[in-house]
Amino acid sequence: MKKTFAFLAAALLLCAVSAAGAEEATLPTLTYIGRAHLMIITAEGTVIYVDPYKISGYTYEHNADIILVSHEHSDHNQIDIVPQNDGCVIIRAADSINKDGSYNTFELGEITVIPVPAENKNHNIRKTNGFIIRFDGITLYHAADTDKLDSMADLQQYNVDFAFYPIDGKYNMDAAEAMECAELVGAKHNTPIHWIDADPAAFAPDNLLFMNYGDTVALETADAE
Question: Between the chain's N and C termini, which has fewer beta carbons within 10 Å?
């Protein structure tokens, strides 16, 4: 049975004031830290980390309010490297996936987290999930570690804005298969992650948004900083 868990998520209001004194909207941002590790900062300042993994040279400047872990492999679950605010909410696959194979949805203040299937020969569907993350009118899909699944076509219902696919071809699908996933999901922007030794340039779907390690985009405009 699907359950919905409500957590009290701490949110910080970030306001930019123009010279005339009027408030300007703060855009949410996303940083590709590396491997499958992302950081999202919402317009209200809530900080979300996905699949934390230590990347050489990256320094954490923002404490986590929410940490999402897609599965318990060591390149996705290093929560101890992330500085955390008091009351930080940590959601692991064990929290997301029920014994009957159904998924729990999480309402975290202005943020909704919807776990979705992820699977391949290296990743059990009962122990691994991707994430649909909704905030500020934006929908983001983190595919986690997976191959192409027919169920990815169901994600079209979410009108995904930004999608992130593994392309390493060793532990997951390769770039060609990931492009098939991008076609199934139909996101407005598609980004390769978890490429390890693969050539990220091999991932060339429609609506490509390529990000190097450490790159940040403003999610409304997808302009790299």
Answer: N
Question: Within a domain: residue 141?
Answer: yes
pLDDT by residue, tens only, the chain of 225 residues: 444 444 433 333 333 333 333 345 689 999 999 999 999 999 999 999 999 999 999 999 999 999 999 999 999 999 999 999 999 999 999 999 999 999 999 999 999 999 999 999 999 999 999 999 999 999 999 999 999 999 999 999 999 999 999 999 999 999 999 999 999 999 999 999 999 999 999 999 999 999 999 999 999 855 555
**Rounded Cα distance, 190 and 176, in Å:** 13
Helices (H), ranges, 37-170? 93-96
Q: Which CATH number do you get for residue 142?
A: 3.60.15.10
Task: Say which residues have a Cβ less than 8 Å from residue 157's Cβ, sequence separation at least 6.
Answer: none
39 is written with which tokens? 């950081």
63, containing H or E segment: none
The boundaries of the domain holding residue 198 are 27-220
